[in-house]
Design brief:
Elements: H1 3-10, E1 14-15, H2 18-23, E2 35-40, H3 45-58, E3 61-65, E4 78-84, E5 91-95, E6 100-103, H4 109-117, E7 121-122, H5 135-141, H6 148-151, E8 158-165, E9 170-173, H7 176-179, E10 187-195, E11 197-198, E12 204-210, H8 213-224, E13 229-235, H9 237-242, E14 250-256, H10 266-285, E15 290-291, H11 301-310, E16 315-318, E17 323-328, H12 333-345, H13 366-379
This protein binds flavin-adenine dinucleotide.
Length: 391
């Protein structure tokens, strides 16, 4: 790799300073630090294309990066040049009538939604990392949020996008589903047209407590029948013990877009969400620092939660769509492996939202592997983009 040629493309928006290389050798996962050779902050598509052409000649790996909030090690470099897209953060076009907005990939979700709120619109897929995560990262992991029951996942809201592929070509993509969730291994998202939803200004909520898993699952199935349901979350009993709550219970939090819930006070609803969302931080502070994200078929959830309970694994998550966040202490690799084996036995997915990255490569489904391989053959035949991730 010729650093001088990279500095020629990016000028002062490139660095090989030791402190930058160190910062960019991690992401939010618990994976070991990698090795960045350089970091670049493009401000134009042309710079990205030039970098890729250079990589094709000199055979170095490029790791596209949004905010680095990913939890699967997908932006950890392995002797790579890290392409940080955070400076490409402009809102390019907004059309209120068609409720669409076109953005650069580095736009932070929270900034976008703040800008849209005065028009009564928002991008409705909101991961808990919304204050930092970027649209490019969300598309590339096909992120989901806690209102997935109503709004689905990120790819449901992308009208079209443009990528720069591993050969340096800029290509418009209409079949967004084919590319979303490819974690930067096939193309770099440089522009996206997003569909928007009307802001919801009125919701109601119910909060339920249970002594056992069966009662919680029965209640969940009834709640799911309500068409106004927009979110259904849970926290398990073990988490309530670890959090040292007065009562140790299984908890369900149901939010509706009409009067179905008994709680309609905005402040109380906010407090309930804050309480539910506090469990990630609480469990981390008690040593449960590893967060997994299996997706389990709804009719197998009971068996899965019993399995977690029998293995003393605390969990919480978006239960209404079968997405569970079991939490582990460091050095739990054997236990995590057993859990993934059980997830596969139940017909579940090993990752419902965080992606595969390097953390879950061992368990990647043949279907996803073949999808990435066939896209790589067309769009990144020399394997220039995020080498060694997913496959
Ligand atoms: C506290 C916390 C809560 C979280 N909650 C959720 C949640 O509720 N739902 C959820 O889905 N996830 C969640 N996550 C995971 C993470 O925030 C999401 O995966 C998010 O979409 C990643 O965005 P990012 O900008 O940080 O991307 P990064 O972590 O920087 O990158 C993620 C992947 O996208 C690729 N990528 C980034 N930008 C581009 C681009 N422009 N073109 C091509 N590839 C690109 C990277 O190569 C990598 O493979 C959470 C993480 C944390 C730390």
């Amino acid at each position: 790799m010729n650093k001088r040629q990279i500095f020629e493309i990016f000028g002062s928006d490139a660095s090989d300073k030791i402190e930058d290389l160190l910062v960019y050798s991690y992401d939010a996962s618990n994976e070991k630090k990698g090795k960045a050779l350089m970091v670049v902050w493009p401000t134009s598509v042309l710079q990205i294309r030039k970098l890729i052409l250079l990589a094709n000649r000199s055979h170095f790996d490029i790791v596209p990066r949004g905010a680095g909030t990913g939890l699967a090690g997908a932006v950890i470099p392995d002797n790579s040049v890290v392409l940080d897209l955070s400076k490409m953060n402009r809102i390019l076009k907004f059309d209120k009538d068609s409720a669409t907005v076109t953005v650069e990939p580095g736009v932070i979700l929270n900034d976008l939604n703040k800008a849209l709120s005065k028009f009564g619109l928002f991008f409705p897929v909101i991961p808990s990392s919304y204050k930092s995560c970027t649209i490019g990262g969300m598309i590339s992991t096909d992120a989901i949020g806690n209102r997935a029951i109503k709004y689905g996942r990120c790819s449901d809201w992308i009208k079209m996008m443009e990528i720069v592929d591993g050969t340096g070509k800029q290509i418009p993509i209409k079949d967004v589903k084919k590319f979303s969730g490819t974690e930067g291994t096939v193309g770099i998202v440089v522009k996206a047209e997003l569909k928007l939803a009307p802001l919801i200004d009125y919701t109601t909520m119910d909060y339920h407590e249970f002594d056992n898993i069966s009662d919680m699952i029965d209640s969940m199935l009834t709640i799911l029948e309500n068409p106004s349901l927009i979110a259904l979350e849970y926290v398990d009993k073990l988490s309530s013990q670890i959090a040292e709550l007065d009562q140790h219970k299984y908890m369900l939090f149901a939010e509706y877009s009409d009067d179905s819930g008994e709680i309609n006070d905005k402040k109380q609803i906010e407090e309930l969400w804050t309480f539910r969302e506090s469990f990630g931080q609480i469990l981390s502070s008690k040593g449960y620092v590893i967060s997994e994200d299996p997706k389990i078929p709804l009719d197998k959830l009971k068996s899965f939660l019993i399995w977690l309970n029998n293995h003393n694994i605390p969990s919480f998550g978006h239960i209404g769509v079968g997405l569970i966040h079991p939490r582990f202490k460091s050095n739990s690799q054997d236990l995590i492996k057993s859990m993934f084996e059980y997830v596969i036995e139940l017909g579940g997915e090993i990752s419902g939202e965080h992606g595969i990255g390097i953390s879950k490569k061992e368990y990647v489904s043949n279907e996803l592997k073949q999808k990435i391989l066939s896209l790589k053959r067309i769009y990144d035949p020399k394997d220039m983009l995020n080498r060694g991730k997913i496959i």
